[in-house]
Amino acid sequence: MLNRLYTRCFSSLRRRYPDEIPLESLRQKAVLIENLPKQLLESQDHVQDIFTKCGVKISHDDIHIMRNRFGLPCGRVMIITENNIMPNFNFNPDEVQSTSGPYTEETCKDHCHETSTDYNSTSASFMAKGVQNMMLNNLPPQARAYVCDEHDVKCYVEQCERYLTLTEDLRRLADPANIHRIVTVVGMNKTYGRLELAEVIEKHTSVKVNPANIVFRFKSNGEQDSTAWILCCNPGDVNKIIAKLQEVAVPRRYQYGALMGASFLYAARSSLFLSNPELDFLTTKSKYQVFTMGWQSDVDEDELAHLANTLKFFPKSVKVVKIPSVDGAKHDVGAFFECERMRNIKKLMVRLHMLKRRWKIPEHSIFYAYPKTADVRWMTDNGVYDEDDPADDSDIDEPIHY
Q: In whole angstroms, how large is the CA radius of gyration of the chain?
């Protein structure tokens, strides 16, 4: 009786196993190589030569180099290897039965021996160990290689397309009509694309988001970052996403479900996009600035400077920017406060935060922000971007004692 009870309990635990992965989804489709020097990616011939030395023949159609909008390589390349490398498992049992008779232990050993002989490996694998070692010897020391399945290939193709259109997407986010319709989501893994993130948002918040209105941030090497900006239909959807998408657990690897751990998503109105001809690259002239908005529509720079001194802000200069309203209502007025040093900027932000509480401004309403130039690409940079340098934000991140 006791043994039956134990068996029933353990069987129920097994039935609750979180996820099962179809065997077909584990097939190797491609190899992704990152951190390659730009010289090796100027043409596809250099990549083809590396695989030729490893004994793997690939064509130009199998090589997909990630480039920016200026045609410069980013250091990432994906090579389709599905037709070149033998898998470690035959996914068609009928074919095995017809070609080699019953699939017994002896036939399995013969199949593994043939695979290891062809690819200089001791055992059958997705990519034989001999090929892997030869590839590592022919790649630069800083390069990284990853085996990719079908979902990874789809994500890479989507990232290449979104990286080319990143500037247009940022311009769309900076439209004055969208200033109150943007929500920032952090914590996304790079196996998530637009469709996957839209699915997660709809599942947990019941808000439908057009996948075309999801913009991911990219690192300087073309790799997708964990930050995404979502353009919602109205400010009400923004508030709903912020309220419900807090510490939401999602699979770390989308295609593997809960088998690879979890990541946690957080939503906030932490990013504000603004584009105006009057700014004239204002953020590149000085990094000791703070942007605020929500002031009275008829205020000018002199009045706002006098008000700032009354509130003990003491800015060096004030630049007022009027954001036109789409519905014909009063304009939104924003201002850039410039100070002498970063210490004054931090004190100013602390006082703005105190004013936000004193004036009972809602927590997720836009009131102040630290301005930075967006991650745009310039032809003069020649493919070298330093926006991920920690030294750029060292002043603002350094703690200060008041």
A: 27
* Triad 178, 189, 257: Cα angle to 5°: 120
Same domain, 208 and 251: yes
Owner of token pair 């694998």: 125
With residue 226 as reference, give the H or E element that holds it.
strand 224-231
By C-alpha distance, which of 224, 223, 225, 221 is closest to 37?
221
Contact 31, 79 (CB under 8 A): yes
Give a yes or no: residue 109 inside a domain.
Answer: no
**Tens digit of pLDDT for each residue in 83-141?**
655 544 454 545 444 444 444 444 444 444 444 444 443 333 445 566 667 777 778 88
Q: Tell me: do 261 and 297 sit in the same domain.
A: no
3-state secondary structure of 64: strand
- Digit-coded pLDDT (tens) for 264-283: 999 998 888 888 777 776 77
| Residue 176 pLDDT level (bands cut at 50, 70, 90) | confident
- Whether residues 71 and 131 share a domain: the answer is yes
> Considering the domain boundaries, does residue 382 fall inside one?
no
Stated as kind and residue range, the H or E segment containing 112 is helix 105-118
Which helix or strand (DSSP H or E) is residue 196 part of? helix 194-205
Q: How many domains are contained in the chain?
A: 3
Residue 77 lies in a domain: yes
Looking at the DSSP assignment, which residues form a beta bridge with residue 293? 334
**Within-domain flag for 399:** no
Joined together, the tokens standing for residue 282 give 């204002």
Q: Parallel, antiparallel, or unpaired for β 224-231 and 289-295?
A: unpaired
For residue 10, give both structure tokens: 């353990």
**Domain region containing 64:** 23-87+124-152
341 and 288 belong to one structural domain: yes
Q: Which ranges of 143-193 does DSSP label H, i.e. alpha helix?
A: 150-164, 166-173
